[in-house]
Write a structure and sequence with these properties.
Strand order of the largest sheet: 1-2
Strand content: under 5%
Oligomer: single chain
Largest sheet: 2 strands, antiparallel
Length: 314
């Protein structure tokens, strides 16, 4: 990482730390959700952007992470911070296991398989044999954590800083993963899987690993989202969530770590803006915004930023 990039990162971190003290509690809550979505989009980008596997069912892993946290907190009184790694580990295993049979599928067929997973998840969460754990259609209500050690922060501010710390760690993890040997192998498989295998790359292992790591990121996001919203229910994790995550990585920029943050800002604030513009047809306005972004920035916001930097440097 260059000194300039490190300096920009530190400036952004300082700005991020100052936000809760200048924003209202509601805006702070929204910025917490931006960080949550950014982690989820980062995971999906590892799978789709860097490895070329299309997923329309990542809302299922988001739901799994959210329910892991909610059940542990509600049934066994586990501290909220201790549920995050558990949710990530459960989703890592679930994603890796799901990735094994998905190895035989590519392109649209893989997309349809993951779409089926996303569609089935809310129904599975309502299944009567699981109601004891999931709460059925009523869901589970959990308490928002209070600041520890007597810190002079309100719960919204503390949760923002807690989420920011985890998000920073996940972004550093993703950066090192993509810039290392594993990341190069994932990109090679995406670009030309036959040549990658001829070079000694175990395609099956790396594709399953990509699914697992991607699910882990998304599960951690789901766990944080559950703590932030204080409620989980099956209908909160319908197929629209999976499609929204896919929209986020396309708008933010495929195969881009910073694109996860741009996409998160888009999916958090643009629907609200569309609703303010038109109460009658907010999703039509959202669609117009989405088409406009894709038309004006076909490589996503991150791609447009890179293009501007190259032109300024020329």
């Amino acid at each position: 990482m260059s000194k300039r990039a490190l300096g920009i990162g530190l400036v952004l971190l300082v700005v991020a730390c100052a936000l809760p003290f200048v924003l209202s509690n509601y805006r702070t809550f929204q910025m917490t959700l931006v960080l949550v979505y950014a982690i989820a989009l980062l995971g999906l980008n590892i799978l789709t952007g860097y490895n070329g596997q299309i997923s329309l069912g990542h809302g299922a892993f988001y739901a799994l992470g959210a329910y892991c946290t909610a059940i542990l907190m509600d049934r066994w009184g586990v501290p909220y911070w201790a549920t995050i790694p558990v949710a990530g580990a459960v989703c890592l295993v679930a994603g890796f296991v799901f990735g094994l049979p998905a190895l035989r599928l590519e392109g649209l067929y893989l997309a349809l398989a993951t779409f089926a997973l996303g569609v089935a998840t809310p129904q599975l969460l309502k299944y009567h044999l699981l109601e004891k754990w999931t709460g059925g259609v009523q869901g589970i209500v959990i308490m928002k954590p209070s600041p520890p050690f007597g810190l002079p922060l309100n719960p919204d501010q503390w949760l923002y800083f807690f989420t920011l710390a985890i998000a920073a760690g996940m972004f550093i993890l993703a950066y090192n993963l993509i810039r290392g040997r594993i990341g190069r192998a994932l990109v090679a498989i995406r670009d030309q899987h036959i040549a990658a295998e001829a070079m000694g790359i175990n395609n099956a292992l790396y594709k399953s690993l990509a699914f697992g790591v991607s699910a882990m990121f998304t599960g951690v996001a789901g766990a944080l989202g559950a703590v932030a919203v204080q409620f989980v229910a099956p209908d909160s994790f319908n197929i629209f969530l999976s499609i929204t995550l896919l929209v986020g990585i396309v708008v933010g920029g495929l195969a881009s770590i910073s694109g996860a943050l741009y996409g998160a800002i888009f999916i958090q604030f643009v629907p609200n803006l569309a609703d303010e513009i038109s109460k009658a047809a907010p999703w039509a306005i959202f669609g117009v915004f989405m088409i406009g972004f894709v038309y004006l920035m076909p490589t996503g916001v991150a791609g447009a930023v890179r293009l501007i930097k190259r032109r300024r440097a020329a």
